[in-house]
Structure to design on (575 residues):
């Protein structure tokens, strides 16, 4: 049931939506992680302490092992899977069957643990076993399993269980109907998986079943739409939500602020921050970190720093993410001195730096050519017991090579080879191969190129282009051309850089026919020439004007012919 027909979507800033939208709070509003159940008045049970009129001292009931397990171990999570399965099997054979609340508590703990350990089939078998022994699962039982499946990334299985609940055609044999919470869990997961169309279909389905979406469902879908750059659809859904009288909560505002920051609308984000405070919604640390990141992305570093320092007075304490966002912002704009100051402040305040902190600082230091400071920071990182990740090693290798520190880069590579916790990647090989080629150590680069296949890695177009460039510099054009043909044969399509590199090599070696041949291949692959291609053709014609007619055979190169003509006119004027 859509409320969008009640009022036309208003125009202007998002903040204009959040005025005069009073409506009684929906009883469906609940966190995705919780599951709604009908509460029943508690009845005395054998485990309830009783008091005799004659004896004022209450008798203390003796708990059975099952009761103790359900009330203590299940609640705390302190149990083994074997224990839980044992009690589960015991319960389904009991006569009469225990209350569903007991099943839900035990099944909830079991399902979560099994899904986390990717033992999905076992979790589903438990559900099937409940149905087989005439113990019909409730919406809470199924919702617990759906939540576990979604957290484990098994969204398709969760959808199948939902189908069984909604239409009875999922094959599980359950009869309970989905509610707003189960719909919300799956919609949220579908959005996070990028399956927006399916999330929208489920959203329409729940309204068709007269299950009113709550603020959690709306916020999840709005976030999914914005994150996948479906701005207008997200805004339309926001209008629908507000005009249905559903008040945005903290999650909604965080979604909107993040979306605006991604689009560079930091001023509108700041206005929304003021508005949420006016409406009595306290921003959390995620809100502030998002806005600080937005300011940094937009280059508004002073505003980012100002907001960062105001967090403490607003009831939040900056965490590692807050510091990392600001440090990355300063490094991005070459303000490494300010970044280092924030890093030192971070340590003084007792906030532990993370691998993200060091990666940002290493990148900033290398960008400014401060190689020794970067190496010193890498050593400091290890003394702080922060383990480097693959990104750290990629930064080190790439930047050391670009700063002509090949021996140091080689040492890092050997550390990586012996470190089983970090996987070697094509990008890491590319960085070192590029460094060796630039240092004219072609044989070493060639050995490294062949080692990639030994490690189960496939060279990409960048790898081939680097090797071809290195071979051309050394005058090994036949070998470069053979490598060019090899990459095509292995299904790695050459790009414009590859063609330009090889054509430049042939042109410098006066093998002009090869240049023309490659120009034709470029045209066949619909690759448009760039300024580097133009320069090569000018060199070609300066060596042999008769090749000008070859350009007439290349219809895709009409722009190139104009550029060559302009170049010739400019040369004639200078002469």
């Amino acid at each position: 049931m859509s409320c969008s027909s009640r009022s036309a979507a208003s125009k202007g800033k998002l903040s204009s939506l959040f005025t005069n939208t009073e409506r009684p709070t929906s009883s469906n509003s609940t966190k995705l992680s919780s599951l709604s159940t009908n509460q029943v008045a508690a009845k005395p049970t054998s485990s309830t302490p009783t008091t005799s009129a004659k004896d004022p001292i209450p008798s203390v009931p003796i708990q059975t092992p099952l009761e103790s397990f359900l009330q203590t171990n299940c609640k705390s999570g302190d149990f083994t899977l074997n224990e839980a399965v044992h009690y589960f099997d015991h319960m389904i054979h009991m006569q009469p069957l225990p209350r569903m609340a007991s099943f839900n508590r035990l099944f909830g703990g079991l399902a979560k643990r099994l899904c986390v350990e990717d033992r999905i089939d076992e979790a589903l078998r438990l559900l099937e076993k409940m149905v087989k022994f005439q113990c019909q699962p409730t919406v809470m039982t199924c919702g617990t399993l759906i939540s576990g499946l979604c957290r484990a990334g098994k969204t398709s299985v969760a959808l199948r269980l939902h189908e069984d609940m909604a239409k009875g055609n999922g094959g599980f044999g359950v009869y309970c109907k989905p509610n707003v919470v189960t719909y919300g869990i799956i919609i949220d997961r579908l959005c996070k998986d990028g399956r927006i169309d399916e999330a929208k279909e489920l959203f329409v389905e729940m309204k068709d079943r007269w299950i009113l979406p709550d603020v959690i469902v709306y916020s999840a879908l709005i976030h999914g739409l914005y994150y996948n750059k479906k701005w207008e659809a997200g805004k339309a859904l926001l209008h629908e939500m507000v005009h249905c009288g559903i008040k945005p909560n903290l999650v909604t505002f965080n979604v909107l602020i993040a979306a605006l920051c991604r689009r560079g609308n930091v001023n509108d984000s700041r206005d929304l921050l003021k508005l949420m405070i006016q409406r009595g919604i306290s921003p959390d640390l995620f809100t502030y970190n998002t806005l600080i990141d937005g300011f940094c992305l937009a280059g508004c570093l002073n505003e980012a720093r100002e907001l960062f320092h105001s967090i403490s007075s607003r009831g939040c304490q900056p965490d590692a993410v807050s510091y990392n966002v600001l440090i990355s912002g300063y490094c991005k704009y070459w303000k490494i001195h300010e970044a280092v100051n924030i890093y030192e402040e971070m340590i003084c305040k007792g906030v532990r730096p993370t691998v993200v902190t060091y990666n940002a600082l290493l990148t900033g230091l290398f960008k400014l050519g401060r190689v020794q400071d970067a190496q010193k920071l890498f050593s400091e990182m290890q003394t702080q017991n922060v383990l480097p990740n693959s990104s750290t090693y990629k930064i080190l290798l790439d930047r050391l090579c670009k700063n002509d520190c090949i021996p140091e880069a080689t040492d890092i590579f050997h550390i990586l080879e012996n470190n089983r916790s970090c996987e070697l990647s094509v990008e890491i090989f590319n960085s070192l191969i590029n460094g060796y080629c630039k240092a004219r150590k072609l044989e070493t680069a060639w050995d490294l190129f062949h080692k990639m296949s030994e490690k189960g890695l496939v060279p990409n177009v960048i790898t081939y282009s680097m090797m071809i460039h290195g071979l051309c510099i050394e005058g090994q054009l036949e070998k470069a051309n053979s490598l060019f043909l090899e990459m095509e044969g292995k299904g790695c399509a050459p790009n414009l850089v590859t063609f330009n590199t090889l054509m430049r090599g042939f042109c410098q070696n006066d093998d002009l026919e090869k240049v023309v041949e490659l120009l034709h291949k470029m045209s066949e692959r619909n690759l448009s020439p760039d300024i580097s291609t133009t320069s090569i053709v000018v060199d070609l014609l300066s060596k042999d004007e008769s090749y000008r007619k070859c350009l007439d055979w290349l219809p895709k190169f009409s722009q190139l012919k104009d550029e060559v003509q302009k170049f010739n006119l400019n040369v004639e004027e200078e002469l």
Q: What stands out?
A: Confidence is low (pLDDT under 50) at residues 4-11, 21-55, 569-575. The first helix runs from residue 65 to 76. Residues 334 and 368 are 7 Å apart (CA to CA). The chain is about 65% helix and 0% strand.
